[in-house]
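Let us work through a complete example step by step.
Step 1: write down the sequence.
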Amino acid sequence: MFLDKLKHLPKNKGKLVLALLALVVASEFSYLVSLNVQDGNAKNIFAGMVMGFSFGSIHTVELREDGFFPRQLTIKKGDTVKFITKMDKPFWPASSVHPDHNIYPEFDPRKPIESNEAWSFRFNKEGEWEYHDHLNPLYSGVIIAGKESLFSRVDCKQNEPRCWQETIENALAEGGIEGGFFALSDLYDNDPSFRSDCHGYTHIIGEEASSVFARGEDMALTTKASYCGYGFYHGFMETLLQTTGDLSQAREFCDYVDKQLASQNPGAWRACSHGIGHGTVDGSDPRTWGDAEAMIAEGLRLCEILSSEEFQKDLCASGVFNSLAIMHYDPKYKLEINNADPYWICQKQTVGYFKKPCYEEMNTLTLRSSGNDFSKASFHVENIEESEYAVFAIQSLAAYASSFAIKDASYREFIATCQSLSEHLKIPCVAGFAAGLLEHGPPEREYVAALDYCASEMLTEKEKEACYKRLLGGAWHLYSSQKYQDICNLVAREYKRLCN
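Step 2: predict the structure and record it as tokens.
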């Protein structure tokens, strides 16, 4: 024993060692007290230090206007996390599930923490611990304790697209589907340049998941599949149908998605059905290259027989036209962009359940052919003769344009463009922009920017009502009922009646 060895030291040296030990213990104890540390398994901290226990590293998580940062943190078992806030109001970090905090009940200060104070917690249990701000449960995060990182973080300052792809691919190899989503979320949080291109990179995760599914391996479906506009399902279905060509298997998978996620993510089935349309248009027949109508003919035929319900045919066709728009930017397919009328192919559709999704999904082509200038792109919508479809077109165009605005949270120019349009397009444009912010926002916090936008002083009362209505409708499809209610609590009082 250490104390027994002290007996055999000369008297003066023994006293000196004890004095130094007392000083170290006292200083460490004072430091931990100043942090307001709470021990994860209720062991005596002071006694632990005397016996030489290690308290690991100390990490910091900060609550900001847009949520906890970093939103997900990987630590070692026994490490301590210090929670602070930049906002001038109390906060209360605590374990899920709100409001009982019963998943990891020790992880709870059991009172609000003032803005000028910190609260620290030592994680002595291995696991993935989700938490939230009890005073504003829409702010949430996760601490991963005792596990190695699910991916290797890479600094993507040069050749960003290639680096982003390699980061996600490496994460999939190291941590599976879960690792891929963690890498995606990390890139979104830490690399602003990644945000507007986030959707395409979720396709990579979906492609890998489809391969896992085909091999008969376990693949747990989670709400993370909704990240970045549901691109996961697009990649999944493209791979599934290109590999098997089995439309019935694709439909069965979407039904499975609905059963698994309906309560947490009601919009997952819609996104999956849209993904089927993606998978039917693969550009694999070079005889059709250069002929847009020929390239989508088989996909539309399959959408026609997919279901007797027009609603599902519409969803499937939306994936077909979205794929066509994307193919215009691959020289291999020899498709020329009609800059004078990017909606020309939509005019050729003879049934509403194909015409509507066409006008919606030509949004990417229309905006990019206008140099990503939303104001210029909107002129093409003004030229659509059938006003019903012009409304669908402007809603979708505004939604896609929001992916560029979300980088710098600047909405004034976009609002001004919406307000300059013909009367029948103004409000649909404003509402479409809100839907886009919800689609392209940061994973798990998609609603934050949309709420800020709908509260803009530039919007009229009618425009605000349409904005909140579209936001809340989208949130209902995206989130669980509990989270949806939490979002409703943040809506201005005069618009709470729009909540379901």
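Step 3: interpret the result. Residues 38 and 121 are 5 Å apart (CA to CA).
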